[in-house]
Amino acid sequence: MAAPALPDPNSQQKPEEEAGGRMSFFEHLVDLRKRLVYSLLGIGIGMVAGLAVSPYFIDYIVKPMQAALRAHQMDDKLYYTSPAGYVGLIITLGLYLGIVIAMPWVLYQIWQFVAPGLYKHERSAVAGFIIPSMILFLAGIAFGYFIVLPTMLGFLIGMGTTGPVKPLISINEYFDLILIVLIGLGIIFELPVVIFILSVFNIVTPKFLIKNFRYAMLIITVLAAFAAPTPDATTMLIFMAALVLLYVIGIIVSYFVVRKKRARAIAGGEAQ
What are 258-265's contacts with CB under 8 Å, separation 24+? Predict the structure, then answer.
């Protein structure tokens, strides 16, 4: 009588590589529907809160423009050019604020949906960049509000003081302008997160990033020239300095990612 075959230890998954809960296709659809409903409810609640606080945020939004107008001895009032212009601004600002308020809850719902299908080390990697990506996005908005906007608006208003034409600033057009600037900078500040993801999938390494630094500087210069909202050299240099700093942070992040992966590979080799 043949002895029963023993299980092959090499065929078993390592604990750190075991995936989360297993669900059928139908269960995935049910879970997706639940996460979408929860996300929409969170965004709805966030928008209600955003509409409640948006009138107070308008005071902060107009401060950079008011400072630029006062610096050139002009009236610091902003105007709306249609009867519903100010109400529309409050509603639009409230909706954007609501999305920002609800974003952590929406990201949590996305995480709850994708986490069961990931391996343990993949869950750690994904969870590791969600919070930093939010922090970097908010840092980009802060950088735009406190540094870029004063320089940009000072240049733009200064251009209008040399001739017979005087500015009459519409609050709605001003809001559209700063929305593009702030959200654009928030997205640009995600560069370290992009480098982190590329490093996780072995697309880039710290050595590669350092070796190609001069090419990165060329790309950064071109990007700063096109992304800067004004053609003055000061704003362009501010953009370039921020992008170079983000690139250096990305190199540091890539270094730690690669080092951790090598340590895991060595530990796995010793365990065999």
Answer: 258/199, 258/205, 258/206, 264/121
